[in-house]
Amino acid sequence: LPAAALCDLAASLLNNAPVVYEMAPTGTAMERSVIRWMAASLGFEAGADGVLTSGGSVANLTALLAARQVQADLCQDAPPAFLVSDQAHYSVLRAARIMGWGAEGLETVPTDERYHLRTDMLESHLRRAEARGRCVIGVAAGACSTATGAYDALNPIADFCAEHGLWLHVD
Predict the structure, then answer these.
(1) In this structure, what DSSP letter does residue 93 have?
(2) 139 SS3 class
């Protein structure tokens, strides 16, 4: 916490947006250091990378844009889509709309009585999206849902994504 306060003080004093190194070398260096520390703390390999955003809405948009870029080769003739929980944050729908997918770009998977995404329904909703003419490129899981505090079962969702070559975004 003290280190975070000092970094925030330095960033506020410099008042530069760390978009690129040339605009904010100090802010960019701090961001890179935080990302390396976070990745190592989570057990990721040394090559893990990321970006810091100003909040969850921008983070969801950034993640869906990254997924679209990485998964672009999957969808030649069909518009892309994501599988999401019916408890997904409203910013996931907003991101889909900003990207031009519309509400049809999200295939909503029901949750159970504890508001966890029903992993047993991922396959059927993948097929349902395909039947609607959509090309599913990923799954957005919650950890945790803003409305309920529920955490989706990330390991089974990750296994499903790996099996189908899908992007996994954890909000």
Answers:
(1) H
(2) strand
Q: Which residues contact 145 (CB under 8 A, 6 or more apart)?
A: 85, 87, 88, 89, 115, 151
Which stretches of the chain are assigned E, i.e. beta strand?
80-85, 106-109, 135-141, 167-170
Please tell me the distance from the alpha carbon of residue 156 to that of residue 171, in angstroms, as a whole number.
16
Q: What is the pLDDT of residues 2-25, one digit of tens each?
A: 888 887 887 777 766 666 677 777
In this structure, are residues 85 and 145 in contact, taking their beta carbons and an 8 Å threshold? yes
pTM greater than 0.90: no
Nearest to 171 by CA among 72, 77, 81, 61: 61
Residues of the chain with pLDDT > 90: what percent? 67
Q: Are 164 and 140 in contact (CB under 8 A)?
A: no
Convert the pLDDT of each residue in 22-60 to its tens digit.
Answer: 777 777 888 889 999 999 999 999 989 888 888 889 999
